[in-house]
Amino acid sequence: MPARPAHVSAPPPRFPRDAWALAALELEGLLPAHAAERLRAEAPEWMAAAVVSQGLAPAGQVAVILARAARVPVASLDRVEPAAVQFLTETVARQHAALPLSATNKAIRIATANPLDYDAERALGFVAGREVEFQYALPGPLAKRLDEVYRPERSIERLVSGLGAQATIETVVEERDAGETASASVEAPAARLVDATIADAVRERASDIHFEPGERGLAIRYRVDGVMREVMRVPRSAAGAVTRRLKITAKLDISDPLHPQDGRTAARVDGKAWDLRVSSVPISRYGEKIVVRLLDPASATLKLDAIGLWPDEMAAVEGLLGNRDGMVLVTGPTGSGKTSTLYAALDRIRTTGINVVTVEDPVEYHLPGVNQIQVSEKSGLTFAAALRSVLRQDPDVVLLGEIRDLETAQTAWQAALSGHFVLSTLHTNDAAASIARLRDIGVEAFKLASALRGVLAQRLLRRLCPHCSEPVSPESLPATARPPQGFERPVTVKTANGCSQCGFTGYRGRFAIEEILTVDGTIAELIARGSLGDQIVESARRYGMHTLWEAGIRRVWTGETAYDEVVRVVGEPPVKAAVTLVLVADDDPVMRTLEGSILQAEGFVVVAAEDGVEALEQAQRLQPAILLLDMDMPRLDGYGVLEALRQRLAGRGVPVIVVTAHDDPATEARCIELGAEDFIAKPIQPARLIARVRAVLRRTGVAL
Ligand SMILES: [Zn+2]
Q1: Is ipTM > 0.85 here?
Q2: Which of 12, 290, 358, 592 is the most exposed place for a label (fewest CB within 10 A)?
Q3: What is the count of structural domains for the chain?
């Protein structure tokens, strides 16, 4: 490095320092004469800055015009080589409003707000020992960048003050590692920034804070109502201090940046205690990403009433929780509020005399009066092992954090089939996928059918901000947004806007929606038979189940959320092929299974009835596209069913194919007389059955 004078003194600059800028902007016709006149009288330090700050012209345009006038490029301030910075001291850089960008052996590239200052060019060239190449930068951004490069603590202070109200973190740990080498001048502001950020995030209702290093510094993002948003960017020069502070606070090992670490700490914000879960992950050459989860210990007592369900959803959930054995699953992707719902459910179940045990990884909240087991895969205490040991204590209710593998699933099913009520989660999207997943894991269909009481698929939708959402015409909604059957509430459709109350997102708070599959009767039979998830859901819908899409879309019609939010969370609306439901009535289980599998292979959805009475009841309720009817059945035979169908208006439209062992002309004639569409003699031949079914469906006008 060349020798450089200890101090460069110069007379104080005369204002404006860039008088030429005003002339250049006038020449381009960017400034009206009277504005230029006024600026000349004001004589600000920087004309360019005054033009921008007074809103006379957009910053980008001003920079381009002035760079062109000075015949230099516009500087990009994002990239500053640390090696170049060392050629200029802070004093010199500030004196000349000059920021070194990069340097070679011969030249140094410098961003300046005054590229026409030849004295500065000479002085800088002398100090750096290199030929100077100027680029133009507006005075404002340049000064900010100078702070970031030379005074990281100052730019942190600016971020802290930008967070507004005083931070009130009371319990952060004050510790200093002996081997710490960072400059002390940045440590204190970094600590203040961390505290202020946590307080700010709590007030913004964030669930977690992400500190992610990158080329352009440390990005700080909040997750609010499930959506990430960047709140600030800490300059790279100060990023290390912030990361270090976070790790010290959570008692993580700051000497090890190469391995993921987890820790925790506590903080008080505005007098309220918060649990902070801090995790560090090495992500790139820029360092570690730190995520701070903000947990409100008070929300462990979350009530089911507080998750925002509609009465029908609540009734179905309460119905499922009323079970005292078997298994209820809550499903949904990460962030769908599964855990909160499970805790709320436990809170509902936990009454005197009921012994509740949880097996979790990790234990999210501590519940008073509940025995909570922390799974530790490392030391061999797997979900399955922990569950087995828990079952020896014979609990009434078990909350099992997650079912991940066959071993856990089998133990859980054993428990559910032997008089315990098991609550657990699956990482699947909906009820249909959950049944498919459990089969994939290896749970046998008959076990599924006999122990599964229900599946709760959940999502969280953001609630439109009451302060700024605006009504829109229902006609603005696409056709896919039609309200589901049975919707009967006053219609108010609204759209998201954004105001200071909602952080300009248009939403404030969230509520849960549910797709609830209650497993009993027909549904259990479909599961036992190994029907596809879609078929199960399709028949469940006939019993009144709402899909997630329907549960979400009806909240659009009441103005609780917006259509876009439902699409964002639940996905694009389902485009469903028409489903053809076939009812098979036969007292012989072998026949039911045979006919069922033949029809299912052709894509029909099959529901079964064991006798004539059940067949009538199903025909009336489900209105199947076709009924395959056996003649010899207990309680009510085929003739009885045909007569009843003919007499009763409700079932009258259901076409019937008689399937019978009585292959004689008299029986056939009587059946046709009673209204049957067709007559097939047993034994069943698959191709013939399908051909006849399709022919009847064509005749009766059901599209195939
Ligand atoms: Zn708002």
Answers
A1: yes
A2: 12
A3: 4
Reference 86, options 2, 209, 182; nearest CA is 2
Number of CB atoms found within 10 A of residue 696's CB: 18
Q: 508 CA to middle of ligand 1, Å?
A: 7
Same structural domain, 260 and 162 = yes
The verdict on 53 and 105 lying in the same domain is: yes
Please give the helix or strand (H or E) that residue 202 lies within, else none.
helix 184-203
Say how many Å lie between the CA of residue 414 and the centre of ligand 1. Answer: 50
Ligand 1 centroid to 503 CA: how many Å?
A: 7
Question: Considering the domain boundaries, does residue 491 fall inside one?
Answer: no
Question: What distance in Å separates the CA atoms of residue 700 and residue 704, rounded to the nearest whole number?
Answer: 11
Answer left, alpha or beta for residue 270, where phi above 0 means left and psi between -120 and 50 means alpha: left
357 lies in which domain range? Answer: 301-461+510-549
Residues with CB under 5 A from ligand 1 (ion): 465, 467-468, 499, 501-502
How far does residue 155's CA lie from ligand 1's centre (Å)? Answer: 30
248-290: pLDDT as tens digits? 988 899 888 888 888 888 888 878 888 898 998 887 677 888 9
| Ligand 1 centroid, distance to 471 Cα (angstroms) | 13
Q: Last residue of some domain: 295, 312, 328? A: 295
Spatial distance between the Cα atoms of 549 and 484, rounded to a whole number of angstroms: 9
Determine the distance separating the centroid of ligand 1 and the alpha carbon of 494, expressed in angstroms.
12
